[in-house]
Every structure is written in C-alpha cells, then in structure tokens.
Design a protein that fits this description.
Helix content of chain A: 25-40%
Distance between the termini of chain A: 37 Å
Number of strands of chain A: 9
Largest interface: A-B, 20 and 19 residues
Structural class of chain B: mainly alpha
Radius of gyration of chain A: 18 Å
Number of domains of chain B: 2
Largest sheet of chain A: 6 strands, mixed
CATH topology of the largest domain in chain B: MetI-like fold
CATH topology of the largest domain in chain A: Rossmann fold
Order of helices and strands of chain A: EEEHEEHHHHEHEHEEHH
Mean pLDDT of chain B: 89
Number of strands of chain B: 0
Mean pLDDT of chain A: 89
Number of domains of chain A: 2
Order of helices and strands of chain B: HHHHHHHHHHHH
CATH superfamily of the largest domain in chain A: P-loop containing nucleotide triphosphate hydrolases
Shape of chain A: globular
Largest sheet of chain B: none
Oligomer: heterodimer
Distance between the termini of chain B: 6 Å
Bound molecules: adenosine-5'-triphosphate, magnesium ion
Strand content of chain B: under 5%
Number of helices of chain B: 12
CATH architecture of the largest domain in chain A: 3-Layer(aba) Sandwich
Low-confidence stretches of chain B: none
CATH architecture of the largest domain in chain B: Orthogonal Bundle
Structural class of chain A: alpha/beta
Shape of chain B: flat
CATH class of the largest domain in chain B: Mainly Alpha
Helix content of chain B: over 70%
Strand content of chain A: 15-25%
Chain lengths: 252, 273
C-alpha cells in the first residue's frame, strides 16, 4: 500500500468564479491514496468536499496544483441520489456505462450481470427502478458504477438519502462488495461513525477553503470485520471523540 | 403498474370498485345524453319555428347537406385538402420546432441570443402575417401550410425547450462522470426524460395547426373546410357553414385522439411493469 499511490493530489487550489463573487473552495490541498485503500473525507459543510471529488472524477480542473491518478480507467462516481433512469430496466441501467463507452461486449455485460447476481438482485433484472426500495436502488447504482470496472470509486454521501436502518445495512453491503472486488474508494460523508467504521484512513478537512487538517489511520482490534462489527470495537469511541472535537472546533 | 387480478378481495374493496364503475357509467351516460339533448332540442326548435332554420340551420338540414356534398363528390375533396394542409403543417412545424429546440438546448449562448426574438414571435399574432405570406408564397396551399407551420412552430419550440431545460443537472452530471458526450447525454437522458413534455406539446401543436389552416383558408379561399365556411357565410348558406363546422369538430377530435393515443403508447411502454 505504501508503494506507488493510486491517487496523488498535490498543492491543489480551486476557485469558483461567478459574476457576483469569487469563492476560494480549496487551498493547497495534498494527500495520496494507496491502491486498495478505503479513505473517508469528513469536514464542515460547504468546505469543498464535493469539489475535490469532482476534480478527482475529472469533471473540473484544479486552478492550481496537480492531480494524478495512475489508472487507465475513469473513476466511478456515486452520488447521493441513485439517478437510475426510470424508463430503463435494472439491466438497462447497469449497462449504461458500458453503452456510453461503447464497450458493451459480451464479456463486460456478463460481468455486470454476474455482479447483479452475486449481490442478490438478479431477480429484479427486468424490473423498473420504481419497483425497488431506496436501499436496493442504491445497490443498483453501485453495480452500474462497478460495471465499467473502475479501479477508483468516488462516493459522495451515497447513503444520506436512506433511512438509518437501511443506511447501516447498505453501508455494510457496499463495503463488503468494494472489498471483494478489490476497489480503492474515497467516501465523503457527514457521519463520523460511518467514516470510522468503513475506512482505513479518515481525512479531516478544515473550513472553506478546504485544507487537510488532520488524518487518522484507523486501527481497530477487529480491523477486517464488517463496518457494523467495527462499530463495537473498544477503540471506536476514541476515534469518534477525537474527530468530533476537531470538527466541533469549526462549527463555532 | 397493473396488479394481477385478485380474487379474494375484501367486501369494502368490492364496494369501492363498484362505486368507481358506477361513476364511470354515469359520466359517459351524461356525455351522450347532453349531446342527444342538444341535437334533439335544436331540431325541435328549428321545426317549430322558435329558431329560424335559415339562420340557425338544424340537425336534419346538416345531415341532408352532408349527403348532398357526399353524393356530388365534393365532401372528401374539401376534407382531403384541409386534412392534408393540417397534417403537413403540423408535421413540419413540430419537427422543425423540435430541431430548433434541440439546437437552443445545445448552445446556451444561442439560446440567450435568440431569447428576445422567440418572445416577440410568441407574442405576435401570427395571423397578422397572412397578407405577407400570400404575397410571398402565392394565394394557394403553400401559404396555408406556412401559416399552420408558423403557428405550431413557435409553440413547439417554446414548450419542448422548456421540457429539455427541466431535466435536472444531476442526471447530466452522472452521465458526464460516465464519460458521456453531449450527444449521448441528449439522446440517452435529456430526450427520453422529456418525452412526456414533448408529447403534451404535440397535443397543443395539433390544435394550433388547425387554427393556422382554417385562418389560411379564410384568407386564400380556394377549397377546403375553411373555404366552405367563408363561402357559406358570404352567400348566407348557414347549412353549409354548420355542416363544415361539424365535420371540422370531428376531424380535429380524431387528430387529437390520434396524438393522445400515440402518447399513451409511448408512455405505456416505458412504464410497463
Ligand atoms: N459551481 C459552483 N459555482 C460557485 N461556487 C460553488 C460551486 N460549487 C460549489 N461552490 C461553492 O464552493 C464551496 C464548496 O462547495 P462543495 O460543494 O465542494 O462543498 P461540500 O463540502 O461538498 O459541501 P456539503 O457538505 O454541503 O456537501 C461552497 O461554498 C459552495 O458554495
Ligand atoms: Mg457535497
């Protein structure tokens, strides 16, 4: 993991220009992410978390600094809402990325369908999105993202539209899926417990303009367990209090 | 979503279904009843002289006019011409209108440049352009079609463009994260998502094409239902006027239902469970 990192962010600044104002969203931000790592980003609201994900996804260029991703594949992006297309079946939805990139080969389609099968959604293959619950829809959105086999996954508060119960369960399932498929993931969340339970490392951002305030390597006595079990480990609360205090100092 | 027929429904549910059916029957019965009553009263008033049939015509006179027009072979000639003008004007107007809407969606700059022109064109009563069209396109079918086209074009552009612009930015963002080109974003998300809006725009546009054609025929008057109406009015043959209007009603309704049927077909396929 400490070898060549998959993602290197170096001295990145970002300024938004609008007719009425100029907003500095990110200020000299640097970090790396190793292959196979699960990293969470927490920070005060409006500090620039979505902005850094957009740059990692290649949707915007930084105003200053550089971002390097050592992968031939485009990163996969998951948003807060699943944005499944209502007029396509579940199968049609998970093939979207393949169709867009003109790589809907037999092999790739079979892979997407296998994912659907492995993660217990194959019976909904010919259903339409509105026939699925919120949690199932978010899982379909994940499979849609995984279908193009990205190495890096960017998750922008993907669970925040779900109710608490579903949220815990889906976080568990998605974490298991990402581990099983050997993916590298960056998760943006407002939920400190979610960040600690899911990640190898938590990055804490400052108020806008975002800089990297601190980073915590999460070492729990049951490190390989699922997020739900990790919440019960004795060290969990210490990490929680530490990050809570750091974030709390911004809210005033 | 269609549910499988459920055989063991509860008593309350059965009563509920029955009340719905009852109301449906009542509504369609009332519709026919009102129509029959109107026709019947009209006929009776005309026959007893309460209404002067020379000015108000009557259902029986309309029927005999229809029969006369049919037997001397004029009826379908006039219907054909009007129908042809309307369909061509409608198809051209909506295709061109949709194309213009696509271009304006594509380029925000173009959209902003042309915005005031669209607003003025929309506000302008297109009928005012009639004399100009006659000078430019001649006193014939061409002018009439252009009139129908103009009227449906502007409506289509405005409503279809509004439909495109309604599609949320986040769905487009998602497509961009997948690496989609603008053409793919349009054809895979924006267009299918705004299909319902486009279909309801078509329904408005059908009506607009009829307005354009009838006004055009009023101005140019060679043949067609609009011509029959104007001619009938001029020579005081109110039977002819009323007959043409009845035929027009039927045709306009048929065309509207054809578009509505198309709409239902399309929306049914995408929401088919
Ligand atoms: N397209 C834009 N144009 C102008 N300003 C923007 C734009 N997008 C974001 N901003 C501003 O940049 C700052 C950072 O926004 P960003 O969405 O990255 O924050 P965030 O940390 O994701 O917030 P949240 O916690 O609410 O999701 C905010 O102050 C926001 O107002
Ligand atoms: Mg955000």
């Amino acid at each position: 993991m400490e070898k060549i990192p998959l993602v290197t962010v170096e001295g990145v600044c970002l300024t938004y220009h609008e007719p009425t104002a100029e907003t500095k969203a990110i200020d000299h931000l640097s970090f790396h992410i190793g292959r196979g790592e699960f990293v969470s980003i927490v920070g005060p609201s409006g500090c620039g978390k979505t902005s850094i994900l957009s740059m990692l996804a290649g949707l915007m260029a930084p105003s200053e600094g550089s971002i390097r991703i050592r992968s031939t594949k485009r990163p996969g992006y998951m948003l807060q809402h699943d944005h499944l297309l209502d007029w396509r079946t579940i199968e049609g939805n998970i093939m979207l990325a393949l169709e867009v990139k003109h790589i809907a080969t037999e092999e790739n389609c079979a892979y997407a369908l296998r994912l659907l099968d492995t993660y217990g959604l194959s019976e909904f293959r010919y259903h339409y999105p509105r026939q699925l619950s919120g949690g199932m829809r978010q899982k379909v959105a994940l499979i849609r993202t995984l279908a193009a086999s990205p190495e890096l996954l960017l998750l922008d508060e993907p669970f925040s539209a779900l109710d608490y119960q579903t949220r815990l369960r889906i976080a568990d399932e998605i974490h298991t899926i990402l581990r099983a498929e050997g993916k590298t993931a960056v998760l943006v969340t407002h939920d400190i417990a979610e960040a600690i339970s899911m990640s190898d490392r938590v990055l804490v951002f400052s108020n806008r303009p975002a800089t990297l305030k601190t980073e915590h390597r999460i070492l729990l006595s049951c490190n390989d367990a699922t997020p739900l079990e990790r919440r019960n480990s004795p060290e969990f609360k210490d990490y929680f209090d530490m990050i809570w205090k750091e974030l709390d100092s911004y809210e005033t | 979503m269609k549910h499988k027929p459920n055989h063991d429904i509860s008593k309350e549910h059965a009563a509920y279904l029955k009340s719905i059916r009852k109301r449906e029957v009542f509504i369609s019965a009332m519709r026919y009843l009102i129509l029959l009553a109107l026709i019947g009263l009209w006929e009776v008033f005309a026959a007893t002289g309460i209404l002067d049939p020379f000015i108000f015509s009557s259902p029986s006179r309309i029927v005999s006019t229809l029969v006369r027009l049919y037997s001397n072979g004029e009826l379908f000639g006039h219907i054909g011409i009007t129908l042809f003008e309307t369909v061509v004007g409608f198809l051209l107007g909506t295709t061109l209108g949709t194309l213009v809407a696509i271009i304006l969606w594509w380029s925000k700059t173009l959209c902003r440049i042309f915005d005031p022109y669209l607003v003025v064109l929309n506000a302008l009563p297109k009928i005012a352009l009639g004399p100009i069209l006659i000078v430019w396109f001649g006193a014939g079918v061409e002018s009439i079609i252009v009139m129908a086209l103009l009227i449906s074009l502007v409506v289509t552009v405005m409503s279809v463009l509004a439909g495109f612009q309604e599609i949320t930015g986040e769905k487009q963002l998602l497509m961009r994260t997948l690496g989609a080109s603008k053409l793919q974003i349009f054809s895979m998300v924006v267009f299918p998502a705004s299909l319902p809006t486009i279909m309801s725009a078509l329904k408005i546009s059908v009506g607009m094409s009829w307005v354009g054609v009838i006004v055009g025929e009023y101005l140019v008057s060679e043949a067609g239902l609009g011509y029959l109406i104007v001619y009938g009015g001029q020579v005081f043959k109110l039977d002819l006027v009323m007959t043409s209007i009845v035929v027009l009603c039927v045709l306009a309704a048929l065309m509207y239902y054809a578009v509505a049927f198309l709409e239902k077909k399309l929306t049914l396929r995408r929401s088919h469970a």
